[in-house]
Amino acid sequence: MISFIKNNILLLAVGLVTFGITTLFIVLLVGTQTKLDNLRDEINTVKNKKENIRDFKYSLKRETMEQTGRNRDIAREKYVSLINEIHTIYPSPISIMSQKLGITEEEVKTMKNVNLVRRLNSQIAALNQRYEAAGISLVDKGLTFNDYVNGDILPKEEEIPQIVQQLAIVDELSDVLITSRLKEVKQFERNDGIALKEYKSHKYQYSQYELEIVGDYVTIQNFLNNINKARFLFITRNLVIFTEDLAEKLTSDKITDNKAIDVKDLSELNYEERKSIMNLLPKGDRVVFPQLSQVTLKVTLDYVFFDKPKE
Question: Has residue 192 got a pLDDT over 90?
């Protein structure tokens, strides 16, 4: 037996190797078959789902799809109508300012930068005079246009319509501030440069302003009311209010008990005029009037411009 094994050792080795390879192939074949079975099951599952969707009794019919299309068209018509209405209520700043400058909108596009700076200086000077006449202290005399007003920078030609647009916005904000009869404008800043920023949805553009104003309850209320009545669309954000009672700071030597004072029309006076009148009231009467409290309002305003939908 041992002699037989020795004489056939090579044949035995070949047999063992063949058996091992065969076993390995069987294992691989079984694994492959299992994978194929799994794939076939997945295919059948997908096929069944497809058939179920095809046979689903609530599948979209032609009439349903046509109605969906009509609803989409109606929604778009309403959207276009709404945007057109917004454009009617809130005109283009460039159209407003071009009228104020005595030129056409086309002339704005072809205006030379030197002419723009000259007109810009004239408009800013006129606004400063209005602030001064209203008794409002204005910290930033350049009203966000310092670089151009001071002559440090000449605008690029492509920036000219944008500057005219921002000038119209500043002019409208100034009108709101002045007619509100405030005491002081501590901050008047525009964020993010001259160009309007485009909102991520690409449905509208905006420009953001930071204001810090000082007055009393009446004037701050005037401002909040007036900003909602402005010719342009402004959205109020990040509103913070600080109050300071001035009653204790008023000197008693100005108080007279025998002077009749009509306080019904305080809202028609500016801050200093109202404070002068309140100084003449008896101290007990002065304390109960909220007009004696100095109010500081910090507010972020977004000017918003909606793009006209494409037809």
Answer: no
